[in-house]
Amino acid sequence: MPVMVSFSYFLANFLIRELWQKGLRRKFWLYLFYGLVTATWFQLMAIMVFFISLAELQYKNMNPMMDDLSLLWVIQIMIATVFTVIIQLKRENQQQKAIQRLESDAFEMKMRLKELELNALKEQIHPHFLFNTLNNLYGLALEKSEKLPEALLRLSQLLDFLVYQSQKEYIPLGTELQLIQDYIALETLRFEERLESRIEISTEESQFRISPFLLFPLVENAFKHGLKPASGSTFLSVKAWMEKDSFQFEVINSLPAKPLKTKNGGLGLINLKQRLELHYPKNYQLSYRKTAEQFEVSLSIKIKENEQQPV
């Protein structure tokens, strides 16, 4: 009995746990063979000593039943081995399933938290965006500008985007770029002839889809922190194009001689960085360059091979 207990412990706690579960199958079978031989030898020795002691150390007087018992003990060791392996593997399988369930639950929870975080970030954009736009319209109203009706029309188009497109996870790139063009047109009304804008978009045939309001903060930032209607001649350059494996977006704007003072500065760009990390982790590049005269920002997003979809 001690031999069988010791061998079962060795099998369950060393061979299966340390070798089989770690994928060391060849070592498992080798050590299992060694263990069986060793356990059988000790068991036979124990039986032999027991019967010799009964025969008063006279081998010829030993009971012939010893041979049958020896075979029986060997069979018992084999049966114990099989049952131990089956029980341990069943336990391992149950543990593996439990781990997989936990991993699945953790993944679902992570995706749900990601979705909630993305929605929260988009909800931050909406009031921020509307606040700036309504400020622009308020300025036109104070001036009793004839451009106010056109500005209201542009605003209605922007609100249409806000209501029907912004809640989607991804939208066509062209829809986002149209939003940007409407916004630039709305802002340009305040500058009259003092803003030189250049928009170059070469993504007409692209099927690339993008998260709503992802590019918008880069253009909004140019107007809010760089361009100023009363600062003389200003310029804005917006470029969007597709490369072999990426989408490229670039915004360059002039800077006033005296920096603008704004509340909640940088909210849009901080929000943008967080959304890029959630949507395109390790698959985007966002870079800035500022001089005394201008501010440049560029964004690159990798695209799946042979697909016009975000990575």
TrEMBL record:
Key words of the record: Kinase, Membrane, Transferase, Transmembrane, Transmembrane helix
UniProt KW Lyase keyword: no
Transmembrane portions of the chain: 28-51, 71-89
Signal transduction histidine kinase internal region domain residues: 117-195
GO cellular component: membrane
Pfam families found in the cross-reference section: His_kinase (PF06580)
Listed GO MF terms: phosphorelay sensor kinase activity
Record-given protein name: Histidine kinase
